[in-house]
């Protein structure tokens, strides 16, 4: 994975190259991205540039043995940690699936990882066992003369005890040892970890950058690529998912449409039926995905109510629905609804009973719509 292979973020790439060329590389970094915007790909490209013996012109060569090992995520001095299910299960048990998913799509979304690992119906976290593994791995001598690194994907899902065990080594690692955290929610990362890291903001890609890359990434024509890029909110991962999961997106849009129809017609029975439908989704990841999807729909309604039609990102075939929703709901509905879906998402993350979560959600929406 070369810098040239990563979509967008030209300024971030230049900053990382300057770090490497100057030798002033922070020992701990947090890459903050909106989901699917390429932070993992950037981190891998950065490590490849740092360790490549033939790097030049602001990028690694991409062909030497070191580059091949890093791009395939098999370099012995680079360790990966990500949320898994079970207290005694670690990322090492799933490295094959992790590598295969990255090879297919380096912009993968959180739910896509859990599906690849076969844990989409289970609660996931980064447990104490992971911290023990990291400490054991870093206690050994490195295999090469270059940088070694620990990449922790979604540190916001790290248990407090696991984070506490890592504090000292994150603050004072051995020479040429890097910690790279990739987060979608930096506010949820423990302050004891984030305060020891340099923050790097990975920005969403432009529509043009995504549209230009999708034909090669997804094997679609230019028209389909432009359409997916238009509604991806700068996330390459979201664009790829929309192309591969059209049926899932249609299902979520149908659920949201039914919910809004019930709210606007003041039909409490229909709204409660929607709550049952949400809680019946067959995994917590799908329930969380629906909350995010609905939150984006609420944003579009708000944009219409604010007269920002061109910035709303609404598809032409959905415009009539959104216009009716914007006209029918009160001025404060969008803010309250956005807060309600965010709270529901957080409650699902904490394993609160789904039936209670979604019943409470629709109740709050019902009293807020007018």
Quick one: how many beta strands? Answer: 5
**SS element count, helices:** 17
The pLDDT mean sits at 90
Name the helicity range: 55-70%
**Low-confidence blocks of residues:** none
Order of helices and strands: HEHHEHHHEHEHEHHHHHHHHH
Shape: globular
Strand order of the largest sheet: 2-3-4-1-5
Percent of residues in beta strands? Answer: 5-15%
| Protein structure class | alpha/beta
Distance between the termini: 51 Å
Major sheet details = 5 strands, parallel
Radius of gyration: 22 Å
Summarize the structure in short:
The chain is built from 17 helices and 5 strands. With 370 residues, it is an alpha/beta fold.
Describe the fold and architecture.
With 370 residues, this protein is an alpha/beta fold. Helix content is 55%, strand content 8%. The chain is built from 17 helices and five strands. It has a five-stranded parallel sheet, with helices on both faces. Strand 3 (148-153), helix 7 and strand 4 (177-183) form a beta-alpha-beta unit. The model has no long low-confidence stretch (mean pLDDT 90).
List keywords for this structure.
globular; 55% helix; alpha/beta; single chain; 370 residues; five-stranded parallel β-sheet
Detail the topology: elements first, then pairings.
Blueprint: H1 10-22, E1 28-33, H2 39-51, H3 65-71, E2 78-81, H4 95-104, H5 110-117, H6 128-139, E3 148-153, H7 160-171, E4 177-183, H8 191-194, E5 198-202, H9 207-218, H10 222-230, H11 236-244, H12 246-264, H13 268-279, H14 284-305, H15 319-328, H16 333-349, H17 354-368
Parallel strand pairs: 1-4, 1-5, 2-3, 3-4
């Amino acid at each position: 994975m070369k810098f040239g292979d990563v979509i967008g973020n030209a300024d971030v790439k230049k900053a990382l190259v300057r770090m490497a060329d100057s030798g002033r590389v922070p020992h701990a970094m947090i890459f903050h991205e909106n989901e699917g915007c390429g932070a993992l790909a950037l981190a891998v490209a950065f490590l490849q540039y740092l360790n490549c013996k033939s790097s030049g012109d602001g990028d690694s060569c991409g062909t030497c043995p070191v580059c091949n090992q890093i791009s395939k995520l098999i370099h012995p001095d680079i360790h990966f940690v990500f949320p898994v299910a079970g207290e005694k299960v670690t990322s090492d048990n799933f490295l094959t699936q992790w590598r295969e998913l990255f090879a297919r799509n380096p912009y993968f979304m959180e739910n896509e990882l859990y599906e690849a690992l076969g844990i989409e119906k289970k609660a996931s976290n980064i447990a104490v066992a992971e911290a023990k593994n990291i400490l054991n791995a870093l206690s050994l001598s490195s295999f090469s003369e270059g940088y070694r690194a620990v990449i922790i994907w979604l540190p916001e899902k790290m248990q407090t005890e696991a984070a506490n065990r890592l504090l000292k080594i994150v603050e004072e690692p051995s020479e040429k040892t890097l910690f790279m955290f990739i987060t979608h929610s930096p506010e949820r990362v423990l302050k004891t970890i984030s305060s020891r890291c340099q923050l790097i903001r990975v920005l969403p890609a432009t529509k043009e950058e995504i549209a230009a890359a999708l034909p090669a990434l997804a094997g679609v024509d230019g028209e389909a690529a432009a359409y997916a890029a238009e509604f991806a909110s700068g996330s390459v991962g979201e664009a790829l998912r929309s192309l591969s999961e059209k049926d899932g997106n249609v299902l979520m849009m149908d659920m949201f449409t039914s919910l809004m129809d019930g709210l606007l017609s003041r039909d409490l029975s229909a709204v409660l039926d929607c709550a049952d439908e949400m809680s019946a989704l067959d995994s917590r990841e799908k329930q969380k995905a629906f909350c995010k999807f609905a939150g984006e729909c609420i944003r579009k309604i708000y944009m219409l109510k604010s007269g920002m039609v061109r910035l709303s990102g609404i598809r032409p075939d959905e415009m009539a629905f959104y216009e009716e929703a914007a006209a029918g709901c009160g001025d404060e509905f969008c803010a309250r609804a956005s807060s309600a879906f965010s709270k529901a998402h957080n409650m699902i993350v904490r394993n609160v009973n789904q039936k209670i979560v979604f019943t409470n959600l629709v109740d709050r929406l019902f009293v807020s719509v007018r």
